[in-house]
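Postdoc handover notes: sequence design on the structure in folder B. Input C-alpha cells:
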C-alpha cells in the first residue's frame, strides 16, 4: 500500500490505528476504540475495511509505506558500503521504535502479523545481504554481516527510550561505524 494512494478518509483510520498500536498496544485496536478516537461510526470503518483482519493487513502495509527505510529497500541501494550503512542507519532509526517493537510483540500472538513481520524481516535481510554482496563480500560473510547488523538494529530499538535523540544518534553511529572507520 502506497501512502500517496490511500484515500485521506481511510488514512485517518490507519493513522489512528498506528497511534493506538504504539501507545496502547494491539489489544486496544478495537473497531469501537478506533471509531471513538476519530469520531466516526462503525459503518465508516466497514466502508473502508472488509473486516478487522483487512484493517490489520492495511495497517501493516501502511506502516511500511510511511517510513523512509522502505524507500531504501525498494532501491538497488548504493554500492559503497559506508554510504549504504550510513543511509540505512539514518533511515532505519527514523522509524518509530515503539511501533516496530509493538508489531514484533504482536506478531508473537497473531498469525497475520507474524506473516507480515516475517516478510518484513526477510525483505530487509535480503536487501542488506545484496548490498554487502555489491560491496564485494562473499555470500557467507555478506549473510553474517546482514544478520549481525539487523540484530543490532532490533536490539538498539529496545534501548532507544533510554537516550535523547542526539545521544541515540551518536550511539548508533558508533555501533554501525566502529572505531577506525571500517565497517564491521
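Designed sequence:
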Amino acid at each position: 500500500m502506497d501512502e500517496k494512494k490511500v484515500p485521506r478518509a481511510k488514512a485517518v483510520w490507519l493513522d489512528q490505528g498506528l497511534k493506538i498500536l504504539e501507545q496502547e498496544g494491539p489489544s486496544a485496536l478495537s473497531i469501537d476504540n478506533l471509531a471513538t478516537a476519530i469520531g466516526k461510526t462503525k459503518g465508516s470503518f466497514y466502508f473502508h475495511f472488509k473486516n478487522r483482519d483487512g484493517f490489520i493487513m492495511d495497517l501493516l502495509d501502511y506502516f511500511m509505506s510511511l517510513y523512509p527505510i522502505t524507500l531504501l529497500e525498494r532501491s538497488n541501494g548504493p554500492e559503497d558500503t559506508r554510504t549504504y550503512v550510513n543511509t540505512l542507519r539514518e533511515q532505519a532509526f527514523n522509524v518509530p521504535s515503539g511501533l516496530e517493537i509493538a508489531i514484533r510483540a504482536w506478531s508473537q500472538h497473531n498469525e497475520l502479523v507474524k506473516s507480515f513481520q516475517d516478510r518484513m524481516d526477510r525483505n530487509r535481510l535480503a536487501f542488506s545481504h545484496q548490498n554487502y554482496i555489491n560491496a564485494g563480500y562473499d555470500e557467507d560473510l555478506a549473510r553474517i554481516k546482514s544478520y549481525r547488523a539487523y540484530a543490532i538494529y532490533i536490539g538498539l530499538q529496545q534501548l532507544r527510550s533510554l537516550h535523547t535523540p542526539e545521544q541515540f544518534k551518536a550511539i548508533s553511529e558508533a555501533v554501525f561505524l566502529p572505531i577506525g572507520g571500517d565497517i564491521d
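Context for whoever picks this up: DSSP finds ten helices and no strands in the chain. Don't rerun without checking with the PI first.
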